[in-house]
Design brief:
Elements: E1 17-22, H1 29-37, E2 55-60, E3 64-69, H2 72-80, E4 106-114, H3 120-136, E5 141-147, H4 154-178, H5 189-192, E6 194-199, H6 206-219, H7 223-227, H8 236-251, E7 253-260, E8 265-269, H9 276-290, E9 314-318, E10 323-329, E11 334-341, H10 342-347, H11 349-371
Helix pairs in contact: 3-4, 8-11
Amino acid sequence: MAGVAPQDDAVTDAARRKILMIGPRRAGKTSICKVVYESFQPNDTLFLTPTMRTQTVNMDTFQALQLLDVPGSALANWVTDSPRASDADERGPRTKMAFDIPWTDVSAVIYVVDAQDEYFDALVRLNAVIVAAYMENPDIHVHVFINKVDGLSEDYKYDTQRDIEQRVYEGLLNSTHELQGVLDEDTRLDKAVRLHFYLTSVFDASAFLAFSRIQQRLLQGTESEVQHAPPGMVSLSDALETACNLLCTACYFEKAYVFDVPSRTFVGCDTSPFDASLYNIVFRYMHFLLQFSELYAQVPDAVEHPVRTRDWSTSVMRLSHDTTVAFWQLDHHLALLAVVHTNVQLRNATILDYNLGLFRDAVAQLAALARS
């Protein structure tokens, strides 16, 4: 199952939620896509040729998504014609990217910045992208990947992140003043824009973690969807989180992740504190299991073809005397990886399997809702 998950031909491009990946030339956009969704080895990305046209990756994880890898030249050409404060109220073709997709069709933007290069001009372009996107689609999420941080020291990494965040927020505050009369009186772009920053590299798990966070936020739905939801209805993200919390309570798990196996990104987890070192162990274990994907890649989807519990793959790895990582396949896309005390896993294997059967059914129902 290495690479992009099998695609659902019944899902049209129009039905997929769009994610734009944009940024300056040689920032590492295509390298990230190749490593996460096509299982490229990080060292092989050094020999990739520049992207000349938009590349599309369809992702059927917990929901149907479409990632558009946009060449840096498209960003440069677009920014030249981007809306100015004086004409920001116009809604013409200039608020679209070079491939002519309106911002209203975009759920999230990933903007990749090269942390090892001079990034002042890249942040000016980012500001123009954010302003244009927000004017058309206030619900849009903007995710900034501060990329290629593997060559930086720990202190310099976080100094760079703080500097970039400060420059971006200051730019948005300045844009708010420039757009007075266009924006609502109480709107401040530095507060209103849904902006997230990540330190990323293709040489570790950070890019996978960033995509995991993006998927989780998309499952939360837009603000307008939340406002118009019936009383008592929760988002798919909250429902999956609650299911993980209940499972951890019933099975005494220390941490639980619902992973999309082919991409090695997770779509949900419980609410216990995030531990980066523990996540890296779980991630490496998932990578190890992918080497044996033939053992479970052909198992049919639980939603369409119910199968016996024993037909689903499981695996256990003891990390230390008292800590174990356990894997349970949920369907041909999803799997649960949990960190559990070794004694709990050894003494309660039958109860764990029973609870996992109930959890599998719940996740299958949520996945069906997400993909419908």
